[in-house]
Amino acid sequence: MENKKVKMNKSRYTLRSTVAIIAAFSFVFLLAGGAYAASTIGTNMSTTGTFLQTVGSATAARFQNAAGTTTVLAVDTTNTRVGVGAAPSTTFEVQGTASASYFFTLNTLQVAGVAATVTYSRFGTGTTGYTADLDASNDLLVTGALEVDGNAFFDGKVGIGGATNTKFEVQGTASASYFLTGNTIQVGGFASVAYNRFGTTATTNGLAATNDVLINGILEVDGKTFLDATASVTTGFEVVGYASAKDSFVTRSLVIGNNVASSNTAYSAEFGGGGGTATVSLLFGSSSVSSKGTCLQMKNMDGEWVYLRIKGELGTVSSMSLVINRNRCL
Q1: Angle at the Cα of 224 from the Cα atoms of 265 and 241, rounded to 5 degrees
Q2: Which residues of 212-244 are buried (b: 16+ CB within 10 A; e: fewer)?
Q3: Dihedral (C-alpha) 252, 256, 261, 264: value to the nearest 10 degrees?
Q4: Using CA of residue 129, residue 132, residue 134, residue 135, what is the dihedral sign?
C-alpha cells in the first residue's frame, strides 16, 4: 500500500515537471516570433543585446501614457516612419514643439506648409510667381510679412512689386525722407546717361556732367528762379501776371537779339537782330483794340522826364533833343 502511494506521488511530480518545461518552451517560442499573441511582460524589461522587431505594421511599436490614451512615440515599420506625439505622415514627424541645438537639411526647408514640397525653401503655403528665379534649394519664399530689426544686405537685385531690371526697383509709389545718390538721377526711363535727366530724350547742348540736368517735358516753377550763368531760349520767352512795374526788373544789362554791342557798358538795354531792314522791332501796347495812347517815357540830360507819344501818323515830342551818332546814342 505504501509503495502504491510513492508511485502515485512520483507520477504527479513528473506531470508537473513536464507542464513547466512545455510552458517554458512555449514562452521562448513566443519571444522568437513563432506566434503573434498579446502578452504582458512585467513592470520592467531590460536587455544587454539588441532589441529587434521584424513585424510589418503601421503601429509596430507604440509608447503610451499610463492610461493608454496618448501615444508618445509611434513606429510605422510598413511606411518607414517615426512619429512623436501622434501617428506620423512623413518619415519623421513631431506633433508639438521641437527644439534642436542645430538644424541641418540637405534639401529645402518647408515651414507652416502642407506635406507637399517645392524645389525652393519657403515659409507658408504660397507658390512663387517667379519660377525662373526661385527654383533652387538656396532660394527662399516668404508668403507672409517679413520683419528685419537689424541690418539687411542684398548682394543681388531687389525688386518690390514686380520683376526687377536694375539693382533696386519699385513697381508703384515709393517714398523716402531723404534721397542721396553719388551718380545721376534718371526719371522716366531705364537707360542712364552721364547727366541727370527727366525723360528719355538725349541732350542737344552738350550736357555731360553729374551736375547737369535735362528736362524733356514742361517745367513749372511757382517760386523764384535764380540763374547764375547764361540762359538760352531757342523759342519764345514770355513773362505774364505782373501787377506793377516794380515786380519786373533787370539788375544788369538787358541784351535781346544778335550782333549787338553788349561789350559796351554804356548800354543798359540792347536790341539787335542781325543784318537787313527792320530786323529789330519794338512793340509798346497791346493787340487789343481798346489799347490807346502808348507812351515812351525817358529822362533828359537834366534828369527830367520827357515823353514820346504817337498821334495819328505823326509823332509829338515834348522838350527832347535827339542826337544820332554812328556808334552810339549820346
Answers
A1: 90
A2: bebeeeeeeeeeeeeeeeeeeeeeeeeeeeeee
A3: -10
A4: positive
Residue type, 322: L
Cell numbers 519664399: residue: 141
For 85, the grid coordinates are: 506625439
What grid cell was written down for 221?
Answer: 516753377
The string of pLDDT tens digits covering residues 165-206 is 788 888 889 999 999 998 999 998 778 899 999 999 999 999
**SS3 label, residue 214:** strand
Residues 191 and 126: their CA atoms lie apart, in Å, by 34
Give 104-115 pLDDT, tens digit per residue: 988 898 888 766
**Phi, psi for 30 (deg, rounded to 5):** -65, -40
Q: What is the DSSP letter of 177?
A: S
Which candidate, 100, 84, 103, places its Cα nearest to that of 92?
84
pLDDT of 308 strictly over 70: yes
Cα 231 to chain centroid distance, Å, stands at 40
**Cell numbers 504582458 correspond to what residue?**
40
CA 119, distance to chain mean position in Å, is 24
- Alpha carbons 156 and 168: distance in angstroms, whole number: 9
Nearest to 232 by CA among 207, 210, 201: 207
Residue 285 phi/psi, 5-degree rounding, is 130, -155
CA 270 to chain centre: 56
Which residues have CB under 8 Å from 122's CB, separation 6+? 108, 109, 110, 111, 113, 128, 140, 141, 142, 143
Q: Which three cell numbers stand for residue 9?
A: 506521488
